[in-house]
């Protein structure tokens, strides 16, 4: 191994996206557009690429928020992203170098949350302390045949999709410019208020799309019936690298009666697969407060995971 070099803030969006597409899995928090949203809201964002000689082996973007006017919290979410398998020694060296970029003497607190599920003890052995427990989600590997994906659906999910197919709903795909996106964002804003959860603020969703490269960014899908002014159901995904995150889903009463959201998600999974997406993050699950949502997401055959947490 040659000396590890961390290059800060010298890459273009095109270079960033190229590196991101090399990662086996990545989260939308490491998409260029996500960092740009914060930058344009006067929040400091620092992007880095780790090189072993000339070979890029890792990357990430650190969002720094200021509190009380002087305290700065630098947060590296679901990263560093590793572009190849690396040892614990390399991870430790990289994280220590990143921490030096945000020195405590300048009132910086650096924290990171690895996109990993099984190495809590490893980071503890490196000298890092876990301060927040991990986030749980469902990952769906779609780098397989359509038949295999169908067979991995739960039986009730397959039944719901078959019933919905008999309704002959029309599916429309689009991006952040789609005619019905404001309708979907309005319902999402109400959902967040009624169900007391918080995702990426709805006002920033279009900004994510505007700041993404062509063919990436926001992916929308709507189930419609002939003669209806509004969709039966809608879904919105955020794309990043070769991955996508299920960000918003809404199903009206008639849509629920006709299993519209099950059908819509199944068709969208296949559409994303045809466009080169290999992994879908179906979003956070909480089996206590959100058991119905968790069952819905698990019904698509994904793997539930719990990340190891946030460290300082």
Automatic annotation (TrEMBL):
Example of a GO biological process term: peptidoglycan biosynthetic process
Name of the featured protein: BioF2-like acetyltransferase domain-containing protein
Span of domain BioF2-like acetyltransferase: 156-287
Record-linked InterPro entries: Acyl_CoA_acyltransferase (IPR016181), BioF2-like_GNAT_dom (IPR038740), FEMABX (IPR003447), PG_Glycine_Bridge_Synth (IPR050644)
Keyword Transferase set for record: yes
GO terms assigned for molecular function: aminoacyltransferase activity
Family: Belongs to the FemABX family.
């Amino acid at each position: 191994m040659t000396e590890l070099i961390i290059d800060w803030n010298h890459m273009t969006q095109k270079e960033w996206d190229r590196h991101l597409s090399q990662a086996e899995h990545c989260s939308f928090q490491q998409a260029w557009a996500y960092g740009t949203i914060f930058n344009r809201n006067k929040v400091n964002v620092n992007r880095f690429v780790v090189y072993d000689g000339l070979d890029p082996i890792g990357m990430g973007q650190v969002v720094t928020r200021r509190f009380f006017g002087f305290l700065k919290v630098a947060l590296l979410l679901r990263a560093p992203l590793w572009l190849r398998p690396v040892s614990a020694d390399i991870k430790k060296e990289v994280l220590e170098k990143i921490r030096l970029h945000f020195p405590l003497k300048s009132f910086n607190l650096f924290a990171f949350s690895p996109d990993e599920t099984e190495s809590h003890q490893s980071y503890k052995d490196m000298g890092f302390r876990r301060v927040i427990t991990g986030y749980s989600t469902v990952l769906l590997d779609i780098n397989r045949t359509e038949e295999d994906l169908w067979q991995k659906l739960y039986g009730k999910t397959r039944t719901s999709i078959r019933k919905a197919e008999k309704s002959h709903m029309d599916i429309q795909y689009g991006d952040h410019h789609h005619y019905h996106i404001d309708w979907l964002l309005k319902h999402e804003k109400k959902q967040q208020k009624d169900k007391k959860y918080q995702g990426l603020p709805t006002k920033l969703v279009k900004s994510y799309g505007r700041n993404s490269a062509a063919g990436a960014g926001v992916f929308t899908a709507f189930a419609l019936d002939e003669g209806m002014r509004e969709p039966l159901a809608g879904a919105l995904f955020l794309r990043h690298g070769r991955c996508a995150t299920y960000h918003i889903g809404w199903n009206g009463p008639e849509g629920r009666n006709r299993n519209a959201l099950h059908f819509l998600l199944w068709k969208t999974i296949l559409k994303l697969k045809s466009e080169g997406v290999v992994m879908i993050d179906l979003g956070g699950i909480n089996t206590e407060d959100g058991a119905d949502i968790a069952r819905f997401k698990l019904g698509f055959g994904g793997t539930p995971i719990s990340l190891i947490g946030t460290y300082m």
